[in-house]
């Protein structure tokens, strides 16, 4: 197993909970560990496993441009198989990501969202999703893998030579809520309860980079 070249791709099933593992590291120790880059039902994206742990997983392909793709597999690769998932939506929504879920009292028992930017942000997400999804597609009605990359506006006080982590508000969980509800309004899926696998990141924009959110949605291949 330690002879598997960089770029080898393996799949595990675990009672139909498909996961894709890729060896992309170059160091022998611990670089021959395998990284999980996709999971249908398990929250193990970004996890690593030892070579012995993936020994029985079938080889299903190779990453283009790697030694594995150049035909250097230590063992014959199986015939290519259809991946257990398919990309159904991939869009970038420019704008200022706004949180949803923080309420403030305005009197007479009335609570409203604290973020004044929320309505415009949700509409931007909804409109972008509608254009990409088109009115002809029915809403998704099965398991969904959702990936969100939030790019926050770069504060003027941010150092020019480095970009620090986005450890201040808004909360990632509240940014997620706003996007999920906007995708429901857009008719992309029946309900955001269908999201069974979620991966979200939050970072400050690099110099000259536009803020916004990259949204990708995958569904199992067998799903209608």
Q: Quick gist of this model?
A:
With 224 residues, this protein is an alpha+beta fold. 13% of the residues lie in helices and 30% in strands.
Number of helices: 2
Low-confidence stretches: 74-82
CATH-level-4 superfamily name of the largest domain: Holliday junction resolvase RusA
Query: How many DSSP-defined strands?
Result: 11
* Proportion of residues in helical segments: 10-25%
- The strands making up the biggest β-sheet line up spatially as 4-3-2-1-5
Shape: globular
Instruction: Kindly name the structural category.
Output: alpha+beta
Distance between the termini: 37 Å
CATH names the topology of the largest domain as 60s Ribosomal Protein L30, Chain: A
Rg from Cα: 21 Å
Write a structural description.
By secondary structure, this protein is α+β, with helices and mostly antiparallel strands. 13% of the residues lie in helices and 30% in strands. It is built from 2 helices and 11 strands, in the order E-E-E-E-E-E-E-E-H-E-H-E-E. It has helices spanning 118-133, 172-185, and strands at residues 8-12, 19-22, 34-39, 48-49, 59-62, 85-94, 103-107, 110-113, 144-152, 195-204, 212-220. The strands form 3 sheets. It has a 5-stranded antiparallel β-sheet with strand order 4-3-2-1-5, with no helix packed on it. A 4-stranded mixed β-sheet has the order 6-11-9-10, with helices on one face. A two-stranded antiparallel ribbon has the order 7-8. It is globular. The two termini are 37 Å apart.
What labels would you give this structure?
globular, 11 strands, 60s Ribosomal Protein L30, Chain: A, alpha+beta, 224 residues, 2 domains, 5-stranded antiparallel β-sheet, 4-stranded mixed β-sheet, single chain
């Amino acid at each position: 197993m330690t002879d598997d070249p960089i770029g080898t791709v393996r799949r595990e099933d675990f009672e139909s909970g498909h996961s894709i593992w890729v060896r992309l590291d170059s160091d022998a120790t611990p670089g021959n560990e395998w990284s999980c880059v996709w999971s249908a039902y398990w929250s193990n994206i970004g996890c690593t496993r030892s070579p012995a742990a993936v020994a029985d997983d079938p080889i299903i392909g190779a990453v283009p441009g790697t030694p594995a793709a150049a035909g250097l597999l230590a063992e014959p690769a199986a015939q290519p198989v259809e991946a257990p998932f398919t990309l159904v939506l991939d869009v970038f929504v420019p704008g200022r990501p706004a949180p949803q879920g923080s309420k403030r009292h305005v009197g007479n028992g009335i609570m409203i969202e604290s973020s004044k930017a929320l309505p415009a942000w949700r509409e931007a997400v909804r409109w972008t999703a509608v254009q990409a999804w088109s009115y002809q597609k029915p809403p998704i009605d099965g398991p969904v893998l959702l990936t969100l990359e939030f790019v926050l506006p770069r504060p003027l006080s941010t150092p020019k030579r480095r970009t620090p982590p986005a450890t201040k508000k808004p909360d990632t969980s509240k940014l997620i809520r706003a996007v999920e509800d906007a995708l429901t309004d857009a008719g992309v899926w029946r309900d955001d309860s269908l999201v069974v696998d979620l991966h979200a990141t939050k970072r400050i924009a690099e110099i000259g980079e536009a803020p916004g959110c990259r949204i990708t949605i995958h569904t199992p291949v067998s799903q209608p």
